[in-house]
Design a protein that fits this description.
Layout (H helix, E strand, L loop, with lengths): L12 E2 L1 H6 L3 E4 L9 E6 L4 E6 L2 E6 L12 E3 L4 H9 L12 E6 L4 E6 L6 E6 L10 E2 L5 E2 L13 E5 L2 E7 L7 E6 L20 E8 L9 E9 L9 E9 L17 E5 L2 E3 L5 E3 L2 E8 L8 E7 L7 E8 H8 L4 E2 L8 E2 L29 H9 L16 E4 L5 E11 L2 E10 L3 E9 L5 E10 L7 E5 L2 E6 L2 E5 L11 H7 L4 E3 L4 E3 L18 H4 L14 E8 L4 E4 L8 E7 L7 E3 L5 E3 L3 E4 L8 E9 L2 E13 L1 H10 L17 H11 L2 H16 L11 H8 L17
């Protein structure tokens, strides 16, 4: 059983070592004392990816993140020793926060980047010269260009911030004070007036966690352009449910603030609630109220991208995640709808029914509806006062079809980040979701339309990239990049060869990246016209797609036909794993001198698992031909066919005595017969980390042999010592990719 440890995993789940062996993941981690890697900027013009970490700025090749010598692509930017000492004395270095954590990298012009870091609780910014072309190998700080990062970068590295540099002006959602109590949406740099949200006004921002910022044009008129902010914040009322609410806010880029009221403060800031919930049969909705990440999927119409949001549950009643999709048409409808109004502290929020001043609050100056007003300072005072007291819309933004696209409940993980790819397949175009989790894995999910106007969600695969929570997924140019505190990994979008060589297996995988090319499952390309190419993402029907290729035993050519021996009274395990998470498995036994096949079920001495068949206390009557058959989409497939030969204990003892080996101990009957549930507990024990160490030791032992093991294999004790967690305060060794 120990030897079979690694088979107690789902077939579509690849652990870190298995993923690395496929050659489809390339890991980068800085072999110095640095942590908290964040992919902060993609530069497709220079083919670079800019990564910020503690005290370092990195420039990596987009196509090969380990291509160049690190010395030419890293900048060491620590804080001065005196500043670090002051930070430590203030009591802020509990977990090493007194460093310069890079939190902002924005393109300033064709040759320079604007970079900000936390500066040991004293934010600082500077310029980085990256050269005009990537071949120049220029990557250095501009001397004498350091300025304050207040309003651009947080003091505390644990607080999220978002930013966008547009037309030389930096917009940032950030906490701007040492204690982390003053949150604001700020505008700095550039020629326009420095702006911020109303300070300490909980109606505007109430302890927010900023998630994303993105410029989305409203029309062909540039003056209508708005910057959208996605965040979550505390509910404004005590006892309000849920306690956390997800928000989408927006501002006009050309906002100059008010003339008498809201001076140097946004006069076009509005926000609305984002709803992601599952309606119940009793009418009560289950809310996923904590926005974790947002992905903006571009379309041919730049004014109407598709917005994907990842949500989790804020309470402790249950653990769950969901993905909801929103349209800009629905978002604009809410912002053009009624404002939320409250007469006093003891009143309920209602839709404002009074007169709306002109121009409508939230309208951009000089735009489609206000061509004669060139600045918000020209707006009447009643418009500005209305904005200050009514920043929230009454209606909420609901997802497309009023329900989530993907839902996970009663699982031991949560989604943390998302990226989306539009994939062209033989039977249409599909959107593939890459969902990062807090256990370090990436799930590849496709949502298929059904004939009844519902959708069908399929998890194509799940791969373990890190052992810790994923902080970000970046998708660009058919490349996927995964970031965590431990490093960065370049992950291929597909692993077609793991589906096998059979046409049926490739078709049943329903992976839009892959198709059967007549010989094996390989990358699908719309430009290749092959008569033998087979792919069916929507239905996954191998009976129709692989007709003619499943004959002559093609569908069963991978069937294992082996002989397995067992000793009477012992326990044996017959292995059979589904090649797809959507298959159902059945076992049949055909005894010797019989034409009948009997289906095997879990009962008494026999336990069926996802990995095979466990038979305890073997009897001579257990011998025969065992066949494991999978069924998916009405397509039956024989995966394993083996003959189990049960040897009598007396025969085995006689052979051992003749060869001079010690005889088997006499079998002792036990009054205790474990139940199927207790067998499952045993299998659960075998999946513990300690068993992984035993398995590794045994694998080396079996491979090298007892006599030649010598110094080539570490003892189990040494393996355990190697796996012990190291305290970063006392150990400067960098974690290797295999340990992550």
């Amino acid at each position: 059983l120990v030897k079979s440890f690694f088979f107690f995993l789902h077939p579509f789940f690849l652990i870190f070592l298995e993923l690395r062996s496929t050659g489809t993941a390339h890991h980068f981690s800085f072999l110095l004392n640095s942590t908290d890697y964040r992919i902060l900027r993609m530069d497709e013009d220079h083919d670079r990816m800019y990564v910020g970490s503690k005290d370092y700025i990195l420039s990596l090749d987009l196509h090969d993140i380990n291509k160049e010598p690190l010395i030419v692509r890293k900048i060491h930017w620590p804080v001065a020793p005196q500043r670090k000492t002051e930070c430590v004395l203030s009591g802020k270095d509990t977990n090493g926060e007194c460093g310069n954590f890079i939190r902002l990298i924005e393109p300033w012009n064709r040759t320079h980047l604007y970079v900000c870091g936390t500066g040991a609780y004293n934010p600082i910014c500077t310029y980085v010269d990256r050269g005009r072309r990537s071949q120049e190998y220029i990557f250095r700080l501009e001397p004498g260009k350091v300025d304050s990062g207040k309003g651009k970068c947080p003091y505390d590295p644990k607080l999220n911030s978002v930013s966008a540099l547009i037309n030389g002006e930096l917009y940032a959602g950030v906490y701007i004070d040492f204690m982390g109590t003053d949150s604001a949406i700020f505008r700095t740099l550039g020629k326009q007036t420095a702006m911020r949200t109303d300070q300490y006004n909980s109606r505007w921002l109430n302890d927010p966690t900023f998630v994303h910022a993105h410029l989305i044009p409203d029309s062909a008129e540039k003056n209508d352009d708005k910057l959208y902010f996605f965040f979550r914040e505390k509910a404004s009322e005590m006892g309000q449910s849920p306690m956390t609410q997800s928000r989408i806010g927006r501002i006009c880029l050309n906002d100059d603030g008010g003339h008498c009221c809201l001076v140097n403060k946004w006069s076009t800031f509005l926000k609305a609630r984002l709803i992601c919930s599952v309606p119940g049969a009793d009418g009560i909705e289950t809310h996923f109220d904590e926005l974790r990440d947002v992905y903006i999927q571009p379309t041919q119409d730049t004014k109407n991208p598709v917005i994907y949001g990842v949500f989790s549950v804020s309470g402790s009643v249950f653990k769950g995640s969901a993905v909801c999709v929103y349209s800009m048409a629905d978002i604009r409808m809410v912002f053009n709808g009624p404002f939320a109004h409250k007469e006093g502290p003891n009143y309920q929020w209602v839709a404002y029914t009074g007169k709306i001043p002109y121009p409508r609050p939230g309208t951009c100056p000089g735009g489609t509806f206000t061509p004669n007003m060139k600045s918000t300072k020209d707006y009447p005072d009643e418009v500005i006062n209305f904005m200050r007291n009514h920043p929230t819309m009454y209606n909420a933004v609901y997802p497309v079809h009023k329900r989530p696209l993907v839902v996970r409940t009663n699982v031991d993980y949560e989604f943390t980040t998302i990226a989306v790819d539009q994939v062209a397949a033989a039977d249409g175009s599909y959107e593939v979701l890459f969902l990062g989790t807090d256990r370090g894995t990436v799930q590849k999910v496709i949502v298929l339309p059904r004939d009844d106007l519902q959708t069908e969600e399929l998890v194509l695969e799940e791969v373990e990239v890190f052992k810790v929570s994923l902080s970000i997924l970046f998708y660009t140019r058919q490349q996927l990049y995964v970031g965590s505190v431990l490093g960065v990994t370049h992950l291929a979008l597909h692993r077609c060869d793991v589906y096998g060589e059979a046409c049926a297996d490739c078709c049943l995988a329903r992976d839009p990246y892959c198709a059967w090319d007549g010989k094996s499952c390989s990358r699908y390309s719309a430009s290749q016209k092959r008569r033998s190419r087979r792919q069916d993402v929507k239905y996954g029907n191998p009976i129709r797609q692989c007709r003619g290729y499943n004959s002559n035993g093609e569908s069963n050519k991978n069937t294992l036909e082996t002989v397995q021996y067992g000793v009477e009274g012992s326990t044996t395990f017959l292995e059979c794993q589904a090649r797809s998470p959507h298959m159902s498995l059945k076992w049949h036994l055909q005894k010797e001198n019989s034409d009948r096949r009997k289906e095997i079920r879990s009962e008494g001495r026999i336990l069926k698992t996802d990995q095979g068949l466990l038979i305890r206390s073997l009897q001579s009557s257990d011998g025969g031909i065992y066949q494991c058959t999978s069924t998916e989409k009405n397509f039956k497939h024989t995966l394993v066919k083996l003959q189990l030969v049960v040897l009598s204990s007396r025969t085995v003892n006689n052979v051992l005595v003749e060869t001079g080996s010690p005889a088997l101990p006499p079998l002792q009957t036990s009054a205790w017969t474990p139940s199927a549930g207790q067998y499952k507990d045993l299998l659960n024990i075998l999946s513990q980390p300690e068993m992984g160490l035993i398995n590794q030791y045994c694998q080396d032992y079996w491979q090298l042999g007892e006599g030649s093991l010598g110094d080539k294999t570490k003892s189990l004790k040494e393996l355990k010592e190697q796996k012990k967690p190291r305290n970063r305060r006392h150990h400067d060794e960098q974690t290797t990719p295999a340990e992550t």
